[in-house]
Amino acid sequence: MGVIRAYVSSLELPLPPPFLRSLRSRLLLLFVALAVGPLATVGLLDYARSRRMIRALIVAQTDTLARRAAATIADRYAVIRSDILLLSENAEVQQLFRELPRGDSSAIRGAQRAVDDYLQVVWRLAGPSYYTAELTDTGGVRLWYAGSDATSPDVADRLLTINEPVRDLESNRVVGALTLAPRSTPAHASYSARAVWSHPPPLPQPPRRHLRRGSRRRCRT
How deeply is 83 buried, as exposed, middle or buried, from its count of CB atoms within 10 A (0-12, 13-18, 19+)? Predict the structure, then answer.
């Protein structure tokens, strides 16, 4: 036993730091650990929850913007599609493409005049939404054109053009092409020419008659 006691006494156990040697310091350290530990845990949980909420908010806002942009593009395409049908599937244009293969010059000139008159009226309604519009046959010969030729070459190269084949409504055969250069911010983005033609303006009302004072005779009793 004496040997064991001598061996234990010879061992040098590590001493605690100076600030933990007193009971007061140990109690203060325990109090700080019990007070800060739950607060740190709650703070970490709130931080993780805030990150999830911010991520969900960003996803919701991005989804809303994407849906709004998709709806705007769909509306714009619907207007352009309506104008394409109005410019290419009308009776005047169809008649002109039927007269071209026949080779009758007088009939072609009459059909060309009818196309010019009709499409100019349509262009007054749909023109603010486009830079240019061009109607050609299968050989690339221009049959009708509307728009401004004053656009600079640099701007003209950057214009978005839509090339749509023109088909004969009876045979479904491609007889020509319609090329449109839509504006990025049209003056009437939600106002198509077909809508104008389907809803004509109201007829003017006849003027109302105004009665003069004293025109009615007073009945004497």
Answer: buried
